[in-house]
Amino acid sequence: MNGGTVSRAKAPGAEPAAELRRRVERLMEPAGAATRPQLGRHAYERGWVTRN
Q: Model-level pTM greater than 0.70?
């Protein structure tokens, strides 16, 4: 037994997901967006992304 301590491996890709979340949050404020869908709309309107 390990003395009641449970060791858990980190999920693959967990840290990149957290980094993506931080990047999205940093973009939301200057765009004036409260939600990710609003951020998408603002990004499209400002030419940050294009629809093919």
A: no
Tens-digit pLDDT profile for residues 4-43: 666 556 666 667 888 999 999 999 998 899 999 999 999 9
Q: How many of the other CB atoms lie within 10 Å of CB of 43?
A: 15
Residue-range domain boundaries for the chain: 15-45
Q: Which residues of 5-38 are buried (b: 16+ CB within 10 A; e: fewer)?
A: eeeeeeeeeeeeeeeeeeeeeeebeebebeeeee
C-alpha distances in Å from residue 50, one per residue of 8, 14, 26, 45: 41, 28, 20, 9
